[in-house]
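User: What would this chain look like folded?
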Amino acid sequence: MNRTVCRPRRKNQRGNALIEFALCSTVLLMFLCGITGFSRIFNIESMAQGAAEAGVLYAALSPANYNNLTGVQNAALADTGNYPGATATASLFCTCSVGGAQSTCPASCSTGSSMTYVKVSVTIPYSPVIVYPWVPDPINCTQVAIGQVQ
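Assistant: Here's the prediction, encoded as structure tokens.
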């Protein structure tokens, strides 16, 4: 019968597992913070896109709404849940044909009536939990939505 005898640990190897855990857990924590921060950017980008689309939908309800650009901006900001630092800008432009050149409203078109569009841009600043030297702070997440309102 062949028996393996366990060798006793040397005194100078005690605590190696604790040191390895401390080193590995620090690196893993940094990865976890980076992944969490990266996913928060996607969440804020999605929030900005939804807010811009909410502004366009508000403008599309009636001519009184799209002529009130402050109301369009307020509707977009309300959709962010009043996120601190969020800004919204709205503007109107007209074209004479789909995909045509933009002009001020009302446009004088030779082919008939012009089409009115509203453009809503929402910017939400994002500050990462851990500031890395190669990542700007804050990161501005901007989304734009354009819709025909008339």
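The mean pLDDT is 85. If you want, I can go into more detail on any region.
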